[in-house]
Amino acid sequence: MSLPPPPALRIARLALRVTDLERAVAFYRDTLGFAANGDCRRQDMALLSLGGRELALVSADPAAAPYPEPRVANDPWFQHFAIAVSNMTEAYQRVRRSGAEPISRAGPQLLPPNTGAMTAYKFRDPEGHPLELSYDPHRAPAAAVAVTGPFLAIDHTALAVRDLGAALEFYTAVLGFAPSGRTLNRGPEQDRLDGLDGACVDIVALATARSGLRLELLHYRSPDPAPPRDVGPGDIAATRATIEVEDLRQVTDALEERRRPWTATSSSGLLARDADGHWIEVTEAYSGSK
Hints:
By secondary structure, the protein is α+β, with helices and mostly antiparallel strands. The chain has one domain: 2,3-Dihydroxybiphenyl 1,2-Dioxygenase, domain 1 (Roll), CATH 3.10.180. The protein contains five helices and 17 strands. Strands 5, 6, 7, 8, 9, 10, 11, 12 and 13 form a nine-stranded mixed β-sheet that branches. It has an eight-stranded mixed β-sheet with strand order 2-3-4-1-14-17-16-15, with helices on one face. The longest helix has 11 residues, at 21-31.
């Protein structure tokens, strides 16, 4: 057996594939308050940030599969990211005026105290990527840079998993995440938030060694999810998190030991699939930043 991995350092950024880069940049900038991250703009990619946390918008190949239809919140390929907001009413109105496709029914939902008493709202961007607005009255996110408007920072990314045990084993034993909390969410508020009937979902939070983006695993006990679907690395539904680790060799050893597929992408990183087929990029931190 390989040695236990050192802690995952951080989720460095998220990346979305889009068919219309200009439209995507305009939506995230004008509706959600993202700003260009310096001069990092190429013909096929734009790097944006919100609260110091990065989002890459990447032009998809014309052959890329669109986001699958029909679209529901417990699809096996579902992965969203949540944006922390300071004013849910203002944030929701801006999203609503943009014409974004709602996932939640009847607007933002106040969740019960046993699940954190947060207010949340789920919707989709023009490409179909799921997103969430999140207002937590008890925790103000520490944004690395000043922001204007109600949108503060990317707070976390969450992905649907069919086998919670297998997903936990992958993210903890292969990548070095640490469990940091767990709730069981159900009831009418959760149904309206997810746009589902009879929603019952385990939410397991995972932390990295450094503060920043968190990862959540969403395991729906009900309703039953759709059958798995193969999502290629360049397809629109292939949301990708870039995870920085201390020792990339230990990650590749752990993937090989578990016979998990991975493909080297550069001298310092690799592209891999988790237990549910979600794509992730793993890179080794520069020695000066460890």
